[in-house]
Amino acid sequence: MGIMAVLMLPLLLLGISGLLFIYQEVSRLWSKSAVQNKVVVITDAISGLGKECARVFHTGGARLVLCGKNWEKLESLYDALISVADPSKQTFTPKLVLLDLSDISCVQDVAKEVLDCYGCVDILINNSSVKVKGPAHAISLELDKKIMDANYFGPITLTKVLLPNMISRRTGQIVLVNNIQGKFGLPFRTAFFFRKLAYGVHPGEAAEEVMRTVQRKKQEVLMANPIPKAALFIRTFFPEFFFAVVACGVKEKLDVLGEG
């Protein structure tokens, strides 16, 4: 009996691996079919993750509205998507919208332009961001305001313009791309910011996860290496220990800067 169990173990593992592979492939195909004909708006589509999201959703048959603050880069992304489109699959020509979320005075008007592209929005992916690194006293209030405009007030303004359309149609999803550092009080990150890449995760993998999140309607997804995940666990359940370690790191860095 023992010998049979040993011989059966590799077959069992192989069978489980095969089932997992089939499940992943079915989930991937299902997630893409879930966005077929959906109107998907992606902010900062010219960033690394923005481009990958555009590629994934375009391949899935979504009607894309690509937003960015550089028209030449938007056109370059447009050409890239059109050039790799599979003629055997139904895809739609992306629409381009020039949008700078840090310019609050123009966001409402541009948001209406976004809505006019197809008359509705099914999925809004808030991916735009501005990042800054430095001690609190070295960052000007003007820069703080610009960061808050781009990372908070801009996306909020855009969302509020598009939200009534979703409510009236009783359908719609809003995806917020954030960074795990937003869950920490880390030093030299005094102004809250987003980064478009999950730690140790390729933009393509992150884009596929965004697609699965939309399809499964998940509330929150965390993509990170074990160390950031462990740090989040410690921050949640052992905050005093976490901040003591962070404080030690800050002291060492300040000592090095002082010596320099």
From TrEMBL:
Entry protein name: Dehydrogenase/reductase SDR family member 7C
Matching Pfam families: adh_short
Signal peptide boundaries: 1-18
Gene this chain is encoded by: Dhrs7c
Keywords linked to the UniProt accession: NAD, NADP, Oxidoreductase, Signal
InterPro entries per the UniProt record, alphabetical: NAD(P)-bd_dom_sf (IPR036291), SDR_fam (IPR002347), SDR_family_member_7C (IPR052148)
TM annotation in the entry: none
UniProt family annotation: Belongs to the short-chain dehydrogenases/reductases (SDR) family.
Domain of life: Eukaryota
SUPFAM superfamilies: NAD(P)-binding Rossmann-fold domains
GO BP annotations listed: intracellular calcium ion homeostasis
Gene3D superfamilies in alphabetical order: NAD(P)-binding Rossmann-like Domain
Gene Ontology MF terms: oxidoreductase activity, acting on the CH-OH group of donors, NAD or NADP as acceptor
